[in-house]
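Hey, I'm writing a tutorial for new members on how sequence and structure tokens pair up, and I'd like a real worked example in the thread rather than a made-up one. If someone can provide the structure for the chain below, I'll link this post from the tutorial.
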Amino acid sequence: MHAEHGDWLFGHLGYDLKNELFPLTSEHPDPVGFSDMFFFVPEVVILLGKDAIHIGVHGDDHAKLWEAIVNQPFAGWVGVQSPFQTWQRFSKPEYIGIIEQLKQHILRGDCYEINFCQQFYGENVKLIPLRLYEELCAASPNPFSAYYKCIDKYLLCASPERYLRKEGDRLLSQPIKGTMARHKFDASQDEQRKEQLQKSAKDRSENVMVVDLVRNDLAMVCEEGSVQVDELFGIYSFPQVHQMISTISGTLRNDLSWVDAIKATFPMGSMTGAPKRRVMELIEKYEAVKRGIFSGAVGYITPDADFDFNVVIRSILYNETTGYVSWLAGGGITFYSDPQQEYEESLLKAKAIRQVFGEAEKESFRDVEARWNKPTEGQ
């Protein structure tokens, strides 16, 4: 498609593209229903620079377009139109039990680290997605946020994580592994938590495992000796959490294309684990729904075949036709993981979403117990 149009492309890569890249299958329900992949040529591209805004548009007047944008009515909307019950796919004991089973897989040598996620959801929900996205960004501003619509399906994404960027012949990935809640009221205690994350043996081991995985993935498509770790165990602060982020880069071989770089590195190591194929089998075994666009990537490809993609985390997924809303959260599990702390971390990562849904003060969600909601036709 890119070779055909030679233009900008915007779109997404769904997590279950893994079934095209590996001998894997997925049998879980997919109640939101994003396609595994979708890209389009935009009518308008707006580039926000430090000192200027550039509007690229096919066959239209730039000034008129800018006037239409700034005069667009927006004030007074409310993101959530009516209250709804939030459900949790796993009860707390079920979640903790699964973490214990995953640790046994690690003990047996099946894997070294695995990313496990739980789902929160609501049914028959009425939202105004654009307004809700603004509320989400106000609660949790992040560098790789995205508002994305495919027909009746919406992604409201407040991601702090880059999956992969290509600029010229350079590839760069910035996986996140390691999370610490921020202290709201005491700057000195907040700084102590930041230092605690920096020194955490568990988070460092988790982070270095994904760094090794990304290095190995990039080595398959980069020039020999060019893959390097630009930053290891960097600590970055966001509104709700401190995160441990590492940066890995390499030089793409001149006989390979941007498509080859995606094929070699997707799905991203931070949302799978190591070894990648085996942990994706275990993810399928222990999780209850398809991840869909979650754990995938949203981004763009330039006319020059450069690209930048995020990691779809900290996100609300919404099917407007069915009224089904969903979000997932979890973390990387190693042998040293404490199941109770992993459970609490998954709730922490969903905190900004709980805020925009008015759930911030609740200690827990109502769990599914013995209830299983089969997706209705069309979901």
